[in-house]
């Protein structure tokens, strides 16, 4: 009997040891490995297949979640959507989707959306839909002002069109070199001002011209009575038609289709972080890649709690689309109001780019407190990936706070200004408002009077004047149809800002993807050169640091970035072909947008007093060696740019910027990168 009981007991113990726990937390064997962000997001997706961050309420408020779920349901397959601040996924977009699938353990379509214009990412696991083609078509078909909801809607529309149509649209959008950028989805405030100005001109000029049309009947037999009888009512009718019709035509009321946030949307993140800070002194955003290991976080928390004044630290991303408009000082003020606790508030970005320290009632000497070093404020490059070290920075800040002597209850160094109201900043003013309308009314009346005076000066010459005004002049363009076998790239001789912006955005995306996928196979020299070109182009195109091509980037900046991108593409392809030649490639001096030079030709162009040997691409060299390559023909292929809108086209090396003065020498890829960094003040 005793032996049987002992045998039964041993069997039960063996079975219990073989059964794993029902749910296990992420392993932390060494005690200092950062927690997995994908685990947190996977748990949210397990609760709801569409997860929207509360950190981007200006473009995707939490209250708009039903709209995102509605679009996700249209795909016809299990779909999991995650919308995060672009700042949190700059380096691991594709990897994050794979991690989410691994943690969630469910097949389906996984979509990652961001608050910027970097486009969406999509991956399929166990389902057959053209996700990659749909994502590419969405990227190229939409303009930079399209928000996350518009991107998801277009993505699903292309996805539902089928494999063949999705592939066709992706290929057509990527290969479109027409030079025209897709129209904005909605007008900006500047566009509305232009519309008001045009409306004012039409409201005065058209009725006055209609009324004065009777002057053309001056020599007819109908007489003055007939002229007044028909032209005056026609003028009044034209005025009322325009008065009513123009607002119907320009009927936009908002500059964006992004859902407007409610007051609760704008306080959701603040309340979440404030609730956490009531429980712990150091809060780290779970949606961002963790920069602090559990061991580092425990160490910092103990040091913060040992300080003689209350200190609250929030490690969260700051973007233009959050409730604070990217202002860490303002976010600290909102945390103080939400917690209701007087303390020293510290707001640090996960990438450690900047730390904001704001005193709300902590008894410290403010004069000493706010004199923390630039190293603490902006960080030092210590990591292998050349990023500031957050743990080191916060540790030095805590040490600085400990050394600050006591003082009266503190206050902010400067009171932060409230950000723009997200509803008001997207609301367009009425068409009939603003000083632009008055200017248009005045200009329209003056123009009509001048025109009527010209008409009355002689009916006989009116037709001749009209014919002269209809004459248009053609502008030469370089007839390049594509890269071709020669390696020369497609580029007009007089590119507009729209063509440059659209092409630069497309080629920036392409080079990013090619570098991520293929740089490991390239030679070290070419890989480094490609990275420098990509980095220089990114600095030029995204000087605001919001993950999108700057809307106010001028033509010289866009052209320089495009030259750098094409030089980077050529360097990467040379590295993949295992080219022995490792010196920096020279760039076509006739039109740098053509890409690297293939040889040299002797010629002179506008701005050069004598012919000289200069590097040119294969197509330009063929052109220069053929008949008819006179100076005027050469100048027709010369790249010309506008310094700003409304100014004439001039040779590219006469426009202020990194390309200035390069046409007179052999500019190489390395020289171009150095000139860009010097121009931007980056060392």
UniProtKB/TrEMBL annotation:
Residues 181-192 have a biased composition (Basic and acidic residues). Keywords: Membrane, Signal, Transmembrane, Transmembrane helix. The chain crosses the membrane at residues 197-218, 230-250, 437-462. The keyword Signal applies. Residues 1-24 form the signal peptide. The keyword Signal applies. Residues 169-192, 470-496 are annotated as: Disordered. This is DUF4350 domain-containing protein. It comes from Streptomyces daqingensis.
